[in-house]
Amino acid sequence: MNKINPIMKAKIQEINNNSITNMTKKCFQMAVILLLSFTSIQAQDKKAKDLLNEVTSKIKSYDNIVIDFKYSLNNAKENINQDSKGNVTMKGNQYVLNFMGVTKIFDGQKTYTIVPEDEEVTISKVNEKDDNAITPSKMLTFFNSGYKYNMDIVQNVKGRKIQYIKLVPTSGKDQRKEILLGVDVQTKHIYNLIETGKNGTKTTLTVNSFKTNQPLSKNQFTFVASKYPKYYINKLD
Questions:
Q1: CB 90 within 8 A of CB 104
Q2: Maximum separation of any 2 CA atoms in the chain, in Å
Q3: Which DSSP symbol is given to 135?
Q4: Pairing assessment for the beta strands 190-197 and 202-212 based on DSSP bridges
Q5: Per-residue pLDDT reduced to its tens digit, 177-186
Q6: The pTM of the whole model exceeds 0.90
Q7: What DSSP string runs through 32-69?
Q8: Residue 210, CA atoms < 13 Å, CB-side half-sphere
């Protein structure tokens, strides 16, 4: 078996350390687009706005959303290619995300990060002032400002017509060059989200399964400490 170059291993580890947080953000970037009313956004491309409004209108009728996805990271310059799978369940202000062996539960007030490999659970309150924190309020304002958007290419993916919408950050400090959002023209569901960084890193979130109005447990978004008797509970707040 070939050994991984130590420098390359360090770079991959650094990326993995940020992948779960970035993955959560991407899932909720999709959720924002699905749930936002775009009437407050300045019209920059009427066709793009109309399509997003169609997606929003349809999604608002769902009680919950369950998504199975594939997450790919590529940086040709660093010769890094990684693929991971995960799933997320969303209902109102709550979510459960399973990704890279870690489970994150948000019950509307606190986030519980469960890491089986370390037998540790980290509990933290949501800090509204933290730019990296994912909160319901930010979910409802994420795309209200800071982006230009317009219709992009159309692709045929296994018989599905996918219309892309390009979102470009208006802030020069943003490390993202652009975001491409793929929408299934027939179902009006999100097919994928492609984010390109200024450093050449490209991350792609592709929806493998999109289910709605699923029967969920009453404890779906509740952390039950008794399930983790041997875990170290790390309370940050």
A1: no
A2: 56
A3: -
A4: antiparallel
A5: 998 889 999 9
A6: no
A7: HHHH--GGGSPPS-HHHHHHHHHHHHHHTT-S-EEEEE
A8: 17
